[in-house]
Amino acid sequence: MSHTAHIPSHRKPRRSASKLALRAGVAGGVLSTIAVAGAAGPANAEPVTETIEMPTLTSGPSLSAAVSQSAEATQEIALDLELQAQENAAAVKAAQTAKKAKAEADRKAEAKEKSEAKKRADAEAQRASRSSERTTLSASSNTSNATGSAATVVAFLKAQLGDAYVMGATGPNSWDCSSLVQAAFRQVGVDLPRVSQDQSVAGTQVGTSNLQIGDILYWGGAGSAYHVGVYIGDGQYLDAANPGKGVVIQDLSGYPASGAVRVL
Questions:
Q1: What is the pLDDT of residue 40?
Q2: Which end of the chain is more exposed for a tag (fewer CB within 10 A), N or C?
Q3: What's this model's pTM, rounded to 2 decimal places?
């Protein structure tokens, strides 16, 4: 081989990017030209050079700051999301609590309104009963002449004037026909059956043309009567008539009885 032959070039091994950055103090892109000459040939051998491009690096402190900022931003976003979730949960809970409170308030208001309405209705019924007794109904002269047990029965019946008629009711402010008769005779120690059918055969049968104050009148057959009342004299009787009339005094001429029984 000629002594003037070129000496082969040799490339230095690259170091890691971090070591190069630390040793060279390079920030950003760094270009470095490194000449490599072989020493094995003659002194007049032609030198061989090669250019090596170094990678662009970011300095250590700047990279750490960027990572730190990114972590802080991520944490801040996470905290915002958690706070928003808590606010949403609190809003839902508050809405549910408000809904329950409103429902309870409405229920109490409705119950109070019903209670007050019932009290007003009861008071009105009592006033109507007493007013009706004082101003629109009066006993006949024969009734005022009743004595003894018959007078007691009639007095009790008149005290109930204006009360309501309710099927199955037994007082003290509402009655059906047979419960009123039963309660009236209980005042004088006479224990009558509860229903009109039995009351129509509870005593001595008498004709409707020979009535006395305190006789029990019935409508329908004896033993199968569907209505009862009490004769109070002067062609009148007192009964719990029906839901439309309640407890009233009526004329026998308008609704003649089928028969009567005497228990006093």
A1: 42
A2: N
A3: 0.48
8 A C-beta contact, residue 196 and residue 226: yes
Angle at 52 between CA 47 and CA 56, to 5 degrees: 160
| Nearest in space to 215 (alpha carbons), one of 159, 153, 161, 164 | 153
What distances in angstroms separate CA 227 from CA 22, 67, 255, one per listed residue? 120, 101, 12
Q: Is 181 helix (H, G, I), strand (E, B) or coil?
A: helix
DSSP 3-state of 207: coil
Please work out, in degrees rounded to the nearest 5, the angle formed at the alpha carbon of residue 27 by the alpha carbons of 25 and 33: 70
The two beta strands, 164-165 and 174-175, are parallel
Structure tokens at 258: 């089928």
Report the alpha-carbon distance of residue 245 to residue 219 in Å, rounded: 17
Q: Which two tokens stand for residue 217?
A: 């009148």
* Integer Cα distance of 200 and 221 in angstroms: 8
- Residue 221 CA to chain centroid, in angstroms? 53
Phi, psi angle pair for 229, to nearest 5°: -155, -175
- Give every residue of the chain whose pLDDT is below 50, as ranges: 1-7, 9-10, 16-43, 45, 134-144
Q: Give one DSSP letter per residue of 31-78, joined into a string.
A: EEEEE---SSS-TTPPP-EEEEEPPPB--HHHHHHHHHHHHHHHHHHH
